[in-house]
User: Which sequence fits this backbone?
């Protein structure tokens, strides 16, 4: 394998998930009803809503 090929450009920003798709997927999991995961989901939704508001 050759090592003199041009590397692909690096992305300008980190990959971030789509908030709606992440929340939709998380809600459909049966484990979201557990206390720990429910608390995580609520904190995530609060962080997303405060980030988009300001």
Assistant:
């Amino acid at each position: 394998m050759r090592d003199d090929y041009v590397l692909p450009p690096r992305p300008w920003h980190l990959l971030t998930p789509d908030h709606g798709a992440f929340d939709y997927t998380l809600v459909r999991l049966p484990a979201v009803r557990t206390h720990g995961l429910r608390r995580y989901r609520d904190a995530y939704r609060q962080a997303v809503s405060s980030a988009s508001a300001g």
In short: The radius of gyration is 18 Å.
